[in-house]
């Protein structure tokens, strides 16, 4: 279905300068394309953290995974994104979505920001992208949209460079392939250039404690359900499985958590 080059991103949470910059430099050495930082109010802010990571590396891209649109006025989010893109030499990717439920709950609890209706949150995503495009001028900051429902997928088709499909951990391969085709078709001439990003939460057979809480299921069910959120086997078997996913699903970009970076580096080497 696609012969696009593989791209791999590592997701990490900054703890302190030594840890964070160490992760960035190792990710660059290990062949990862991008370092991603989440947008949650219980962790450091992603924009300054990513700016430091970009300054400590030379080729590594940095990006948000993903900012929640209700947390920032569209112009402010676009301003931060454009600034980081400009000062990193174009190595910044803006990932944006309408916000996971727990992020929106924290925003209300910690910031007093009420949760807007879904349609308004999606409109904020669109306005942020439009503001970014206006600030970029002739430059172009790549934008990823986390798209769940049909309206979000339609917006991604119209505005995004990259898409991650917010789907159940038990979504079948056929369902994911159909959604990828749908977005490409809606995007028209841009469709074949779009990149689709799939998160892998577990490498191997043991899930970190946060995975069952995030996905609301356990490792046994993920294995039995042939979940695309896990990747198991030897490095060669994992590499072959990613080749299959690229061929059958049209997905060539994958994210892994930093706890698996060392292990996954062997897979990257096989697919280089």
From TrEMBL:
Pfam families: Bac_luciferase (PF00296). Keywords: Flavoprotein, FMN, Monooxygenase, Oxidoreductase. InterPro entries: Diverse_substr_monoxygenases (IPR051260), Luciferase-like_dom (IPR011251), Luciferase-like_sf (IPR036661). SUPFAM superfamilies: Bacterial luciferase-like. Residues 21-206 form the Luciferase-like domain. PANTHER family: ALKANESULFONATE MONOOXYGENASE-RELATED, C2H2 FINGER DOMAIN TRANSCRIPTION FACTOR (EUROFUNG)-RELATED. This is Luciferase-like domain-containing protein. It comes from Streptomyces rubradiris.
């Amino acid at each position: 279905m696609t012969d696009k080059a593989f791209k791999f991103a590592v997701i990490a949470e900054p703890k302190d300068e030594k840890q964070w910059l160490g992760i960035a430099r190792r990710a660059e050495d290990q062949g990862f394309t991008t370092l991603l930082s989440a947008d949650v109010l219980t962790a450091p802010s992603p924009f300054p953290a990513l700016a430091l990571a970009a300054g400590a590396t030379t080729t590594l891209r940095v990006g948000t995974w993903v900012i929640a649109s209700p947390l920032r006025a569209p112009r402010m989010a676009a301003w931060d994104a454009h600034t980081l893109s400009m000062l990193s030499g174009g190595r910044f990717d803006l990932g944006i979505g309408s916000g996971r439920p727990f992020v929106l709950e924290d925003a209300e609890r910690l910031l007093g920001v009420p949760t807007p209706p879904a349609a308004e949150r999606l409109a904020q995503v669109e306005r942020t992208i439009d503001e970014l495009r206006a600030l970029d001028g002739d430059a172009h900051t790549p934008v990823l949209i986390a798209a769940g429902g049909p309206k979000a997928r339609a917006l991604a088709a119209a505005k995004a460079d990259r898409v991650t499909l917010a789907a159940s951990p038990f979504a079948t391969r056929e369902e994911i392939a159909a959604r990828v085709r749908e977005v490409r078709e809606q995007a028209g001439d841009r469709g074949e250039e779009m990149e689709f990003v799939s998160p892998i939460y577990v490498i191997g057979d043991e899930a970190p404690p946060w995975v069952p809480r995030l996905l609301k299921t356990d490792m046994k069910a993920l294995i039995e359900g042939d979940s695309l959120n896990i990747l198991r086997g030897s490095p060669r078997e994992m590499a072959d499985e990613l080749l299959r996913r690229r061929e059958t699903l049209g997905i060539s970009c994958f994210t892994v958590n930093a706890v698996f970076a060392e292990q996954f580096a062997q897979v990257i080497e096989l697919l280089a």
